[in-house]
Amino acid sequence: MKNIFEKRLQALVDAGTRARAEATEDFVDSCGSLSTEKKNAWASFLCSIATTESIETMLIDPIRKAFAGSKAIVAYLDAHADDERRHYDLLTAYVKRTFAFEKTHRSTTDVIVYGFLLPKFSTLGQKKPLYLLTPLRFYEAFSLEFYNILKVLAVADELPQLVSLIQSIEKDELRHLAGLDALVREYRESSGVPSAGDLLLINSVLKLLLFDINIAPWAVHNRRVRRNALAIGINPDKMGRDARGAAAEALRFARGLR
């Protein structure tokens, strides 16, 4: 079984290498038909997505340390992290080329969640990687649902290169989801199902991430993100439901219920 698991991870690494070799990085759209408000909303919202993509590397690093003894797992995680950094670069480059926009400062939420709270949880992941594998799986599953919505909105606003960029990222995310599923199953088989205390801590990380991306009317920390989301046509209620559903599914998977 171990040999099959390692071959699976290597196949995913090889697929990622081929995908990067074939990918283009010159995504740029003409957006002259969009209003200034719409351009600014797209630019700012895509920068928010890029930040989320980049944060996944913060979760991956402690997991990598936890599995330092496995060359196969480390190789997969390195490839996964490289993809996330590339996604950040692709999104920010697209925004700069298309909308002449660059994010120049971190928000208060970025500082609190990503600069303080999440690193605290990340230290736990070095001893029990399931604490971070589960939130990482949540990110990947939710992003796939969300990118489907974003593609529809990009088509409506005549941004074909953004659609192509999203499709490129989606291929990576599908591969990541397969890799994380394999890692979680392997971890459960070797370490057993998580305890009630483990699940409580995992759920705490998930709730932190849900809070961070929430754009409901009460989420004053994300007023700007909500305004931009509404401007480009995103339904905050649906986004919230999809996020909570992905988090619940990730927790069920961690428990071995599917």
Low-confidence stretches: none
Q: Roughly what is the average pLDDT, rounded to an integer?
A: 89
Q: How would the global form be characterised?
A: globular
Query: What's the helix count?
Result: 9
Computed over alpha carbons, the radius of gyration is 18 Å
**Main sheet attributes: strand count, strand direction, barrel closure:** none
CA distance, first residue to last residue: 19 Å
The fraction of residues in strands falls at under 5%
| Structural class by sheet pairing and helices | mainly alpha
What portion of residues is helical? Answer: over 70%
Q: What is the H/E string?
A: HHHHHHHHH
The total of beta strands comes to 0
Describe the structure.
With about 260 residues, the chain is mainly α. Helix content is about 80%, strand content about 0%. The chain contains nine helices and no strands. The two termini are about 20 Å apart. The model has no long low-confidence stretch (mean pLDDT about 90).
